[in-house]
Amino acid sequence: MGTRKKVHTFVRVKPTDDFAHEMIKYGDDNKSIDIHLKKDTRRGVVNNQQTDWSFKLDGVLHNASQDLVYETVAKDVVAQALDGYNGTIMCYGQTGAGKTYTMTGTTENYKHRGILPRALQQVFRMIEERPTHAITVRVSYLEIYNESLFDLLSTLPYVGPSVTPMTIVENPQGVFIKGLSVHLTSQEEDAFSLLFEGETNRIIASHTMNKNSSRSHCIFTIYVEAHSRTLSDEKYITSKINLVDLAGSERLGKSGSEGRVLKEATYINKSLSFLEQAIIALGDQKREHIPFRQCKLTHALKDSLGGNCNMVLLTNIYGEAAQLEETLSSLRFASRMKLVTTEPAINEKYDAERMVKNLEKELALLKQELAIHDSLANRTLVNYDPMDEIQIAEINSQVRRYLEGTLDEIDIINLRQIQEVFNQFRVVLSQQEQEVESALRRKYTLIDKNDFAAISAVQKAGLVDVDGHLVGEPDGQGFGLGVTPFSAKPGKKSKSKKTFKEQLRPSTPPPKPVAFEDFKNERGSEINRIFKENKSILNERRKRASETTQRINAIKREMDVTKEALNFQKSLREKQGEYENKGLMIIDEEEFLLILKLKDLKKQYRTEYQDLRDLRAEIQYCQHLVDQCRHRLLTEFDIWYNESFFIPEDLQVALKPGGSIRPGMVPVSRIMSLGEDAQDKFSQLQQVLLPEGPDSVAFYNAKVKTEQKHNYLKTMMGLQQAHRK
């Protein structure tokens, strides 16, 4: 385990023209803040009211930019997450004090982005700087609203709403949210798209203190998993970064909340009170029990509060005299949090399957090594031990010197060394490729040849030569220097381009049955596969239900025969005379066996009937899934058919992967106007905003795509409402 360390606490003061200079003072080192209140003269001459407070923190941020806030508060936490340490950054404070602005920022201006988008950017920048590691990034977005858990990314088409409510589950590995969707992101733009998608689903309301007040606690989590490409594959590190935007505490007398907003404020204040109780308990070394389960917020953050985590608290306060009581309350919370200690440690895990494979490879290598050793009798000093990091580094150095020409040859010692030499050749080659690509990216803009929307945007920006051809030469691998033209050589027309268009748009649309078969084999293959699987399951359940029904009917017939035989035995016993012993009826063995048989048959009947009921419920559910898949398959086919054969050719490029319009996103009748508006907006961003911040491409691309999606959804809802009227 790691060493214990205290939680870092910072305070950010919201800028204001009415700053209380006489009441709020900062220390010279910007690590303390003093509060002074004037005595209330209405309490009389004898007045023991406290008027002065002093709070020592790790930093006070006054009139600080978003850049400075991130550098001070979050940068180290995110950097250590790539080394395997968990991290949590939490924004706490009064409503309207600037928590959401600090955590998320604004999407309209790249410079005003908050901690969350900057953290995503830093993660992907650090991944680019580590070519020796294969690093995967996943994200999730949780909302806690009125003590209920919600997935802010459930609106994505491939997620959908959860059938069962989400719950907080604990296991030896920690706390996780059952039912919360986690999304793999391979690039920065995808992560921003998920962030903006979640932000549009957050619940906000307006009151006198804040016109856009967050009405829920939100936790955006970044999951990192890193495998070394050069060392053992079986050992890897994992970490997660929790970015917590708490809803603001409210004084109902000041906020003037009513109705639903009042109910929300009650839940918010209650959960923040439980959070403070948990912090007080964590700060008391004598306390054994910590009340994490009092509310969903503290339970979900159990790992972060005092656990295996680098914890940072950023307290947002007002600088105005009218809010001084709430400011004092927030600073007291920060002081209590500073007493809490955490024990961060690197999260190392071992892949059992890879470990077995590595051991098998090791065994095979040793056998080959011994065979060579036996054949070479004069080589008795062969080292069979696995190579350590120092030896690997030495081989890497020898390979580099050999490639540079300063080393004539590499001495061969054993088979393991030979394989490591080839492996280091691969590593050096990979690093050189990364360095070349990084150098090109610093000097040029690399655009995918298949990204037709980006190429169209550059064409509109005027980045073409005097002959009308795009600048740059293709490298043959899907990327170009500058912007790659469609043709293989600039200045020459390509025959393949014409063939592509001819294949894309036949002279007459094919019959729908023929096109439907092509659709099922290509774009609709995944939906068709799911449809077939669900139909197969449905048929299997129907077959089982039929077999169960036959068994039930057979049991029923046998029960009827047994009842008739039993009634015959009873009537025969009554004719012959009944015998009693101490009030009990005496029956013969045959009748007794019939009674036992009837009892067993009834038991079998009940069991089979229950199975039949369960199967009927499953059949109903499977039938629902099959109907859904069939409907989606036909809907997607109609969209594909219209877009493939009825949309103008000059807009086909916008519908390609990576284009500004996603297939099925816009009705065919409206695709002309909406496509042009989106492209004009993208060109404007390229020409005006990107020169100010070259790193902002992914940020603005994700913003545009998210806005397009939600504008389309709003348009469709409006059309549906108008149609109903």
TrEMBL record:
Residues 349-376 form a coiled coil. It holds the Pfam family Kinesin. GO terms for molecular function: ATP binding; microtubule binding; microtubule motor activity. It is found in: Cytoplasm, Cytoskeleton, Flagellum axoneme. It comes from the Eukaryota. GO terms for biological process: microtubule-based movement. Its main location: cytoplasm. Keywords: ATP-binding, Cell projection, Cilium, Coiled coil, Cytoplasm, Cytoskeleton, Flagellum, Microtubule, Motor protein, Nucleotide-binding, Phosphoprotein. ATP binds at G93, Q94, T95, G96, A97, G98, K99, T100. Residues 483-513 are annotated as: Disordered. Residues 6-340 form the Kinesin motor domain. InterPro entries: KIF6/9_C, Kinesin-like_fam, Kinesin_motor_CS, Kinesin_motor_dom, Kinesin_motor_dom_sf, P-loop_NTPase. Signal peptide: none annotated. Interacts with HYDIN. Belongs to the TRAFAC class myosin-kinesin ATPase superfamily. Kinesin family. Essential for normal male fertility and for progressive motility of spermatozoa. This is Kinesin-like protein. It comes from Lynx canadensis (Canada lynx). The gene is KIF9.
